[in-house]
What we know:
Elements: E1 2-8, H1 15-25, E2 29-33, H2 47-66, E3 72-76, H3 82-89, E4 97-105, H4 108-120, H5 128-133, E5 145-148, H6 154-162
Helix pairs in contact: 1-6
Amino acid sequence: MKNLYIVGGTMGVGKTAVCQQLKINLSNSVLLDGDWCWDSNPFQVTDETKSMVMDNICYLLNNFLHCSAYENVIFCWVMHQQSIIDSIVEKLDTQSCDVKCISLIVDEANLRKRLIKDVESGIRVEDIIERSITRIPMYDTLNTIKIDTNEKTVAMIANEIKLL
Length: 164
């Protein structure tokens, strides 16, 4: 039986860092970050690109799920609406798989602190702060396991997911 970890959260919550650590913590694991499936310049959000990214994600995840080398498939992306999670899961072959849908949760003060650090490091642009903060409450309504990331290290959060 394989495990599929679907990890969502607002921008800057630590999805990629946590999932990179989880990949190390779990045996025979593979990671897909949804952002990798449409990393373009300029970044364009249109009906066509949204459809393309969903196709890319589902194609890759199904290939990982069908590959005998992997026991643990990890996927992270913003996924701030239940319809996004549902549309991905319904296109996946999860018959031999335990699906764990997780939302990483953070409060405004901690998120602001993380994003300001990223802006100062040149990793992100400043407009991300308010855009990300406005999405925080959206995760409360999702049918996911909520993991509070406030005042926790990446290793602590990854271990919490591993124990699910």
